[in-house]
Inverse folding.
């Protein structure tokens, strides 16, 4: 088993313990200096402290817990440190009396604090280490901008004629209101004291640039969290499969950052520039698995932009091909009778270095797409785009240990290392045990290879601390999204803990697919960019809408079943260490996900819970407790005992049954089985259902009593997510069938290896047919078979057992 | 419909070149083996015949050039993938002029030509292994990093990874595509080291088979033709 804790991919930030204590004093002086400055202007005080809250936090980590707790509660209220003003001090005492719930927000603060702190560390280092000078600058910049910001806000404040105290109250009121908004996390803002104060709410106008280039403007409360704005945008777009998307903002260093949905917007943007962009955050490796066309359309928009900007490099032909699908999707069939719409192609950018030749090529290819609906053209676009080597790769500038410029690319499969345009290394997620960052260094700990004994750590130098952290965050998020079934819960905030508590907070791909499989709405109508630009609308053509709607409904109807499996696929692959040896590729699953599979049940919808409870029961029934992780590699076992029929006959039967089972969950097996067995008169089927009550169904069939037999089928399903590959698109890598026969048993082993969505999966199906006149202890035979299977493949687990018993009924014999 | 990926193993054309008399004496080699010109020509004829009749490829035969003793090894002069052809800058100075005839032939096939103009870049096609989904470029005596970079620029759709070539002349001296998703690789120690890098870098499923005895000469079968998959409508 590969479930040792050590093999988990930890995504922990390295604590900066060593660096922290020595520079504490320095920081303290720094703090007091700034505070002193602030003291000069009584009015500004609040603001200043608010801005400097993080500096204050540096100290707060050494304060007793009770003080810390109350701070986490009052988030941006100016009590982060013990301030030298009466006003704030009184505030502190007020708040001390409040009930103090433990919150996540606390963790956030720790993280923020840490970030700033190490910036300061760097600053300090600059004095002694010359090579740290590069780092110093950004840190200073930050300060400068902060003060600039301060001033601007101050001016505003003066014009508004607001008193600092009022402002404070107001903010708290907002926080309170937000708490009422229903996000469990924010409920901490509700305290009796604040309820009293709450009355005014400050609204801010947010500008969000959408992927079609249009702007979406909305008002949010000043203290709203990222999520609130994100959901507003998704609502506006009518988007349900949200999890692949996110909002970005540009920070004070001109860096694009993802807006954390769980944190206040204001505290992230740290400026008055409420300008955001809606973008794809996680590029689905197989866009065809998305449920809705609108999601695919939005992904197309992002990719068009990626391609046109050169972020996603592609060859001339690919540029032309993608461009031609864009034309088809936006403008419909090429119409020869109309003058060439060169004017509209001129407005569209398909490639960074678009020229006449390319446009000609695009037209030429566009002609060949005749009859394609916009949705089909989008799908084709995505099919081609997803194969590009840089699809979904998020690049970060870095240097290797020798100071050579490289690029680190984060993607669904792992971490890629590029030097110029060449890939010089890659670390698949399963190969990575741990990712961390310390100052401007980014580290990955590598799982030892087959021949190596020890783990190794690879380090990269980033431009500064912030970029190291950003890279680390992106890695955490990508790993969680693509590799885990459920996000890791953020570590509990403890007193004096060091390091970031940041974890991916959204849904994982597995969860997202699960959720989108439950989408039950008619395909939404959406406006394409062309309809905005050009009056002629192709989406409006009734015939197209009908087919599309039809297709969608079918898809939606089919999905739940499929998606369940596809989920289980992910898991199956992830959890199956057998694959590691079988296919030493990046697709080989890691063990990092093992511990999370348990959480899966909790976080899934009812359907899954239902499934899970079934499997739980069955698991216990089988007395084959999956040691720690349920490893749902499919095992199918069949013990058949029948005196009369030949082996061949039984095998036929055996072949029939799985088909039925594959298609249905439980109870429907009986009928389908009958035709294959002409001599059967009486059939008894026992299925262990979720209620764990064995249901007995007797079906009388033909009265052709040649030989009377009794058939009994028992199905045990171990995994909540049993992977039936039916309909799941995947590439079959290998398939082999091994048959071995002994005196009274026939064992058929069917091994298939498939590649699905970048993941490989090994599935072994074993059929054992036992024939004999003697009395066989079936339970024992079953137990023996399971035991053997486990011994033979210790790293796989039994997910399904089907017992099919056929006995001749002697008393009914003529 | 023209797909994005050129795929592996589907070719329509082959460019080959005759064997000049100078091959026997002047062609570059790392061993001292005697070369029987007549025999070599006989072998080559048979080889071209297989391409033509057994594989049904349209064979473009370029005439031999006496001043270019190595010109039969056309693989090194160009890398073709999809409808893009990269005219290489071979690592051996004496072979640089081989590209002229190749360039003309590829132009006639309406391929998009990309020239390697950088004076610091060298690349032999023999160091380029295309798996159908991605490229591996062997960094060898004949191919350098810059050459690989230019190749990556020419074939932007694909991931281009570099692997070390620790023995032999070219990457494809000890490994070759055995079929879709199958790399056949020699069992010598340097070859195995390269295999390790393959395993680490590859994007897609590859099954390395380590049973190929090292080829006696520096050349492998792939080096005597440039295979092209030319689609009708692109």
């Amino acid at each position: 088993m590969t479930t040792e804790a050590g093999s988990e991919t930890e995504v922990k930030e390295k604590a900066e313990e060593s660096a922290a204590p020595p520079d504490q004093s320095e920081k303290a002086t720094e703090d007091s200096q700034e505070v002193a400055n602030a003291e000069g202007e009584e009015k500004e005080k609040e603001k200043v402290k608010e801005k400097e809250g993080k500096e204050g936090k540096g100290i707060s980590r050494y304060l007793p817990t009770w003080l810390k707790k109350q701070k986490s509660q009052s988030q941006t209220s100016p009590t982060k440190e013990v301030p030298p003003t009466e006003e704030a001090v009184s505030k502190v005492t007020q708040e001390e009396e409040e009930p103090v719930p433990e919150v996540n927000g606390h963790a956030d603060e720790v993280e923020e604090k840490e970030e700033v702190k190490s910036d300061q560390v760097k600053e300090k280092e600059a004095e002694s280490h010359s090579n740290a000078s590069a780092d110093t600058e950004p840190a200073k910049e930050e300060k400068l901008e902060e003060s600039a910001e301060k001033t601007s806000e101050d001016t505003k404040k003066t014009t508004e004629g607001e008193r600092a105290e009022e402002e404070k109250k107001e903010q708290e009121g907002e926080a309170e209101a937000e708490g009422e908004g229903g996000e469990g996390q924010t409920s901490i803002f509700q305290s009796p004291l604040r309820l009293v104060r709450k009355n005014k709410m400050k609204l801010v106008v947010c500008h969000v640039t959408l992927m079609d280039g249009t702007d979406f403007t909305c008002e949010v409360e000043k203290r709203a969290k990222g999520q609130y704005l994100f959901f507003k945008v998704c609502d506006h777009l009518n988007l349900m499969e949200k999890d692949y998307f996110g909002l970005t903002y540009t920070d004070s260093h001109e860096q694009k950052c993802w807006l954390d949905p769980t944190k206040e917007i204001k505290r992230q943007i740290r400026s008055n520039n409420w300008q955001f962009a809606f973008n794809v955050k996680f590029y689905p490796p197989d866009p065809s698995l998305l449920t809705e066309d609108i999601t695919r359309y939005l992904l197309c928009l992002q990719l068009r932009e990626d391609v046109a900007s050169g972020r996603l490099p592609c060859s001339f032909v690919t540029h032309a091909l993608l461009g031609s699908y864009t034309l088809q999707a936006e403008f419909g069939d090429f119409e020869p009778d109309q003058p060439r719409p060169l004017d509209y192609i001129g407005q569209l950018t398909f490639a960074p270095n678009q020229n006449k030749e390319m446009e000609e090529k695009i037209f030429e290819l566009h002609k060949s797409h005749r009859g394609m609906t916009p949705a089909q053209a989008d799908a084709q676009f995505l099919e081609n785009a997803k194969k590009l080597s840089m699809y979904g790769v998020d690049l970060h500038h870095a240097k290797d240990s020798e100071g050579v410029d490289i690029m680190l690319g984060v993607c669904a499969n792992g971490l890629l290392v590029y030097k110029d345009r060449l890939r010089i290394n890659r670390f698949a997620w399963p190969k990575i045990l741990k990712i961390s960052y310390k100052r401007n260094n980014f580290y990955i700990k590598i799982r030892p290879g087959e021949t190596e004994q020890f783990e190794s750590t690879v380090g990269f130098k980033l431009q500064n601390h912030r970029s190291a952290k950003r890279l680390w965050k992106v890695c955490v998020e990508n790993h969680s999204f693509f590799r885990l079934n459920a996000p890791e819960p953020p570590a509990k905030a403890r007193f004096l803990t060091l390091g970031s508590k940041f974890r991916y907070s959204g849904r994982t791909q597995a969860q997202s697919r699960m959720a989108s499989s439950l989408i039950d709405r008619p395909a939404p109508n959406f406006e394409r960019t062309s309809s905005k630009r050009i009056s002629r609308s192709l989406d409006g053509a009734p015939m197209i809408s009908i087919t599309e709607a039809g297709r969608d409904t079918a898809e939606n109807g089919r999905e739940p079943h499929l998606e369940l499996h596809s989920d289980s696929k992910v898991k199956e692959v992830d959890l199956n260490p057998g694959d590691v040896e079988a296919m030493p590729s990046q697709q080989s699953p890691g063990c990092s996900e093992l511990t999370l599979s348990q959480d899966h049940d909790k976080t899934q919808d009812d359907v899954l819970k239902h499934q899970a409870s079934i499997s739980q029961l069955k698991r216990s029934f089988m007395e084959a407790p999956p040691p720690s992780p349920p490893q749902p590699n499919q095992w199918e076992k069949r013990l058949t005992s029948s005196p009369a029929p030949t082996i061949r006959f039984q095998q036929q039967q055996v072949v029939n049954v799985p088909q039925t089972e594959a298609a249905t969950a439980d109870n429907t097996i009986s009928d389908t089985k009958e035709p294959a067995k002409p001599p059967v008169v009486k059939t008894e089927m026992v299925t262990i259902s979720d209620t764990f009550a064995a249901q007995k169904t007797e079906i009388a069939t033909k009265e052709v009593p040649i030989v009377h037999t009794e058939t009994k089928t028992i199905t045990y399903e171990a995994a909540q997510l049993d992977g039936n590959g039916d309909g799941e698109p995947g590439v079959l890598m290998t398939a082999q069938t091994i048959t071995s026969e002994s005196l009274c048993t026939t064992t058929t082993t069917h091994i298939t290896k498939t590649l699905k969505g970048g993941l490989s999966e090994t599935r072994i199906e074993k059929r054992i047919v036992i024939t004999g006149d003697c009395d066989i202890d079936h339970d024992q035979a079953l137990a023996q078979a399971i035991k053997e299977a486990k011994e033979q493949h210790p790293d796989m687990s039994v997910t399904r057992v089907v017992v099919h018993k056929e006995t001749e009924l002697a008393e009914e014999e003529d | 419909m023209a797909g994005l990926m050129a795929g592996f193993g589907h070719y329509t054309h082959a460019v080959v070149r005759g064997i000049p008399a100078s091959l026997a004496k002047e062609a570059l080699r790392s061993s001292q083996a005697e070369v029987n010109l007549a025999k070599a020509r006989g072998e080559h004829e048979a080889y071209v015949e297989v391409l033509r009749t057994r594989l049904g490829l349209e064979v473009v035969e370029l005439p031999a050039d006496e001043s270019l003793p190595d010109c039969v090894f056309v693989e090194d002069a160009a890398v073709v993938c999809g409808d893009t052809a990269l005219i290489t800058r071979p690592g051996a100075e004496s072979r640089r002029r081989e590209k002229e005839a190749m360039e003309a032939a590829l132009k006639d096939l309406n391929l998009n030509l990309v020239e390697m103009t950088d004076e610091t870049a060298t690349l032999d096609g023999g160091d380029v292994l295309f798996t159908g989904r991605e490229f591996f470029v062997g960094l060898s005596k004949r191919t350098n990093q810059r050459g690989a970079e230019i190749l990556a620029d020419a074939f932007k759709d694909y991931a281009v990874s570099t692997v070390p070539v620790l023995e032999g002349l070219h990457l494809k001296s000890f490994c070759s595509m055995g079929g879709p998703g199958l790399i056949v690789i020699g069992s010598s120690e340097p070859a195995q080291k390269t295999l390790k890098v393959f395993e680490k870098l590859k994007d897609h499923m590859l099954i390395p088979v380590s049973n190929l005895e090292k080829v006696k000469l520096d050349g492998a079968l792939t080096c005597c033709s440039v295979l092209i998959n030319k689609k009708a409508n692109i």
